[in-house]
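Q: Hi! First time doing this. I have a protein sequence and I read that you can turn it into a structure. Is that right? Here it is:
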Amino acid sequence: MLNFVLCDDNKAILDKLSKMLDSIFMQYNIDAKVIFSSTTPEDTLTYLKSNTVNVLFLDIDLKSKISGIDLAETIRKFNKDVYIIFTSAHLEYILIAYRCKTFDFIPKPLCIERVAETVLRLMDDINSSYNKNLFIRLDNRNTIINQDHVRFIKKDGMKLIFHTDTRTYETYNSFNKISNELPSNFVRCHKSYIANINKISNINSNSNLIVFDPDSNLKCSIGAKYKNNLMEVLKNHGNFSNNLDNTDDRKYRTN
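A: Yes, that's right. Below is the predicted 3D structure, encoded as C-alpha cells:
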C-alpha cells in the first residue's frame, strides 16, 4: 500500500483533496491511502520523520514562517525517496519548487481530473525500473507494496502470500522470479518462505522458527537446507545485530 500525506494551511482544501484522492484510488483500483493530513508544516515534518510516507501533497504558502519550499528542502535532507507534489495558486514558484526533486506542480484551484493525471503518472513511475528496489507490484490492478513493509513471503501452491506490517496480499507469481528481484535483505529461509531480515524480532533455532512480531505470534519456518546461509547473513547484517540481545542465543547452532 502507498501512504499519502497532505499539508495545506486550508482545512477545507485538505478535506477536498483527501476526498479526491480516495475517489481516484477507488476508480483506478490503486492500493493507497491518505494516512495523515495537517495544516502546519511542523506537524507534517514530525510525522514524516517517524513514519513511512510514499507521497506528499504540499502547499507552498502555508501561512507560516516555514513555507512549503522550506519544508521540502528539510525533508530532502533525510528522505530522498518520498514523492513531493506541490499544489499552489502561486505559479511563480514553479521553477523554485522543482529544485526539491519535485514530481509535479498542480495549480490551484484543484480539479480531480488534474490530480488523477498526476496520480496515474506517479503509478507509472513507481512501476518503472528506476523504483524496482523500493516497491513490489503484485498484479495488473495497481497493487503496490513498499518492500520495507513486507515481513515475509509464503508460497502456497500457485499463490504467493505477502505478509506485511498491516495485512496480507495474495497474488499468482513465480517464487523464484520474486526471489531474484528482491533486495539483499530478503533471504530464502525455507522452500516455501522468504524472510525480510530487517523485520526479524527473534529466532528460535531449536524449533527452527523466525518470529517477526511477538505480540501477534507471526512466524515462519527455517528449512534445514537454508539454515546455514540464513545464519551467516544475519551475522553480517548490521540492522539485525543491533537486536541480538533479544534473539535466542541458540540461533547460530545447526541441527
